[in-house]
Every structure is written in structure tokens, then in C-alpha cells.
Design brief:
It is a single chain. The protein has 3 domains: 1-76, no CATH class; 82-185, no CATH class; 200-379, no CATH class. The chain contains 18 helices and 4 strands. The chain has helices at residues 3-15, 20-29, 42-54, 82-97, 109-114, 127-133, 142-158, 170-182, 184-199, 203-216, 222-227, 238-248, 251-258, 260-263, 271-289, 297-310, 331-343, 354-361; strands spanning 230-233, 267-270, 314-317, 323-326. The strands form 2 sheets. Strands 1-2 form a two-stranded antiparallel ribbon. A two-stranded antiparallel sheet has the order 3-4. Strand 3 and strand 4 (323-326) form a beta hairpin. Mean pLDDT is 82; it is low at 101-123 and 374-382.
Length: 382
């Protein structure tokens, strides 16, 4: 077993988030059967232990599990493992039945609001503390920071207070960073697209849009809005999906709000649309949960049209299919949509509420009833 293969296998294991799948990747590199029960022994086991200590994942006094490659007693968080997801769902449903865990403890309401309920990934108070724990050069890489931040926000929204105390430990943040690196290609793509819009030919028009928007909402800091002009948006909205999971126990909602595969594959979204999209996402899921009304195909088609024409995309739990895809991400179309909104002196999507979205989903209203086909903001979708 050469040192080169050991290093490659270890890199696959750590960069893959130390999940069962990452372990299989490591074993394939070492040309070992993926069914090997205790692969972390001998020279390879010692190398994994040394690297784990170096990365702050365990101390020199801890014992390495020969089976998992983690320290003995450490619980593996594997959100791609169906058995794990089922167990998590059953535990959550039991808590709901007993009236437990329906919300975080009152002392944590402020932190909860800043985390899972935040409208933007650049919410003050979250990114700074996380970056202070991430070592260089990773903390200077926006893609890695955003990928880690999304996992942190998901944990803050999902975990009870007692389980949050170590979220910003060096060990846990290292896990966030390692998982973000697994999706570095997608994260870099988003980072480059955002840079192209801000620094390229769209930069001036984007800044003007943000200045106009700041004036409309009476913000005193247009530079703040420019910084948030194009953000890392979630096609799988964290809070909307967590809210749906807490109320229904949906394993799809759990996966969309917890699996790093969905949390780190982000895409550019214009800040004001990013914020307003949450009302649409939550309204759609609230309609699906409504026990007294039925979602219609025509109502869902109306919401799809609104997402398509505004250049936004969301992935939500569906009623027929497990995952429901709405719209296609298109930053240029988002800019055009916001520009038309500002031209008639209104915010994107006007004053549409969750209740309005539910009425559309139930077939009682159409998007034209809220001004998206005629006159004023009604002309936005023509």
C-alpha cells in the first residue's frame, strides 16, 4: 500500500465529508472491497488518525473507529443514507406527537430568527463568527464560506438549543468546510457568475438598480444593497423546507433542507427577489399542507409561470412527485423583472402575501388578479 494511494484515499474520505460513500471512494482507491468491515487499521488507519488530529476532528488521546474512520463515540451525520433519514423522521414525528421540539426554546428565538428565518445568506451576525473559525486560505474564498454558511444555517434552524453549543467549534466548522469543498465546482461557478455580473458590463446597471431600489424602500445605505445585489440563492429554500418538515415530517423536505448536496449547490439571485421569493416558497408549501383545500393543477401552473417569468427557481416537496421544480434561474431576467417593478414604483411581486399564493394554488385566483398581466405592475409578465 503506497503512500501516494494512502494520501489519495484519505483525501477522498475527508473531502467527501467522511460519509459511507466517501469511505467507499477511499477503499476503491486502495483497491479494497467496499464491504470491508474494518478498513481503518494498519498504516492507513494511522494516517487517518494523524490527519484527523491535524484537522481538529479528534485529539491524540481519542481512539479511531476501525469501522467508520471517525473517533469512537462520534455520530456520523449522513443525510444521503435513507435509513438515517427514516430514523430522523420517525424521531421528529414522535417529538411532534408528544408536543416537543415544535420550536426552539424561547431563549433561542433571536438566534433562530437570524438563522433559519433569515432572508439572505449574508445576514449580519452569522457569517462573521463562522469566518473567524475557518482557517486561511479557506476563509478568503467566498465559495467555501457560502457553502459552509448554508450548512451552519440549516443546523441553526433544525437543531434544538442543546445541540447547537458546538456548531462553531473548530471540529464542526472543519466538517462544514470539507463538505463545501466536495461541491467546489458548483460553488465556484456561482462565484464566477456573480463576479461577472458585478464587474462586467452589467455592473453599472446592477448598481443603478440597487440605488433605485434603496430609494424605493427608503434605505439609507445604497452601498449595502449593492453588496447584496447578486447573492448566493438557494434553489432549495432552507427555512421553507424546514418549516414544512417540522409540520409534516416529510422526508423530502428534510432532505432538501439538510442534505449538503442541496445546500451547497447554490446559484446567483438578485437580492430583493431572493428575499421576496421566500413568501412564494412558504405560500406554496402552506397550500400543500392545508387540510381544508385542494391544490389545483391550474393553480400550480400559475405559480410556475410566475417563477419562469421572473427568472427564479425553487425546489420544493411536491404532492405527486417527491421533488417539485419551479422556474429556471436566470439573473438577467431577474434584473429585467426588478427593473420593470421599479418603473411602476413597486417592489418585486408587489404586495403579494402567503395567503394570496394559497388562493392562486387553490385555483381561486390567478396571477393576473394580483397585477401580473395588465396595467401597472400587471404588465410585468406580458
Amino acid at each position: 500500500m503506497s503512500k501516494r494511494y494512502i494520501r489519495s484515499a484519505a483525501n477522498a474520505f475527508f473531502s467527501g465529508g467522511r460519509t459511507p460513500e466517501a469511505k467507499k471512494d477511499a477503499l476503491r482507491i486502495l483497491n479494497l472491497p467496499t464491504t470491508t468491515k474494518s478498513p481503518f487499521t494498519g498504516v492507513f488507519g494511522q494516517y487517518i488518525k494523524d490527519q484527523s488530529v491535524k484537522k481538529g476532528l479528534m485529539s491524540a488521546d481519542d481512539t479511531l473507529s476501525k469501522k467508520s474512520g471517525l473517533k469512537v463515540g462520534e455520530t456520523l451525520r449522513d443525510y444521503q443514507n435513507k435509513e438515517y433519514i427514516i430514523k430522523q423522521r420517525e424521531k421528529r414525528l414522535q417529538n411532534i406527537a408528544e408536543g416537543k421540539g415544535l420550536n426552539l426554546e424561547p431563549v433561542n428565538i433571536t438566534r433562530q430568527s437570524q438563522a433559519a428565518k433569515t432572508k439572505s445568506l449574508v445576514a449580519p451576525g452569522l457569517e462573521g463568527p463562522l469566518k473567524s473559525v475557518i482557517g486561511r486560505p479557506d476563509r478568503d474564498d467566498p465559495a467555501i464560506v457560502k457553502g459552509a454558511l448554508s450548512q451552519y444555517r440549516s443546523d441553526l434552524g433544525f437543531l434544538p438549543l442543546a445541540d447547537q453549543k458546538n456548531l462553531l467549534s473548530k471540529e464542526n466548522v472543519s466538517n462544514y468546510v470539507d463538505l463545501a469543498k466536495k461541491y467546489k465546482t458548483q460553488l465556484n461557478k456561482t462565484k464566477n457568475e456573480i463576479a461577472d455580473f458585478k464587474e462586467g458590463k452589467s455592473g453599472k446597471s446592477l448598481m443603478q438598480l440597487m440605488e433605485d431600489y434603496s430609494y424605493l424602500v427608503k434605505s439609507s445605505d445604497p452601498n449595502y444593497w449593492y453588496q447584496r445585489s447578486l447573492t448566493y440563492g438557494h434553489p432549495s429554500p432552507i427555512y421553507a423546507n424546514l418549516e414544512h418538515y417540522f409540520q409534516t415530517g416529510s422526508d423530502t423536505a428534510f432532505m432538501l433542507s439538510r442534505d449538503p448536496k442541496f445546500l451547497t449547490k447554490m446559484q446567483p439571485e438578485i437580492g430583493p427577489l431572493n428575499i421576496r421569493k421566500e413568501t412564494l416558497d412558504r405560500g406554496i408549501l402552506a397550500a400543500i399542507r392545508d387540510p381544508d383545500n385542494e391544490v389545483t393543477k391550474s393553480g400550480l401552473a400559475q405559480m410556475r409561470k410566475l417563477y419562469d417569468q421572473s427568472g427564479l427557481q425553487s425546489i420544493l416537496p411536491g404532492q405527486i412527485y417527491k421533488k417539485m421544480y419551479l422556474g429556471t434561474n436566470n439573473p438577467e431576467l431577474q434584473m429585467d423583472f426588478l427593473k420593470k417593478s421599479l418603473s411602476v414604483g413597486d417592489r418585486p411581486f408587489g404586495k403579494i402575501t402567503q395567503k394570496d399564493v394559497k388562493n392562486i394554488m387553490f385555483g381561486n385566483k390567478t396571477i393576473s388578479d394580483y397585477g401580473f398581466n395588465r396595467g401597472g405592475i400587471a404588465s410585468l409578465l406580458e
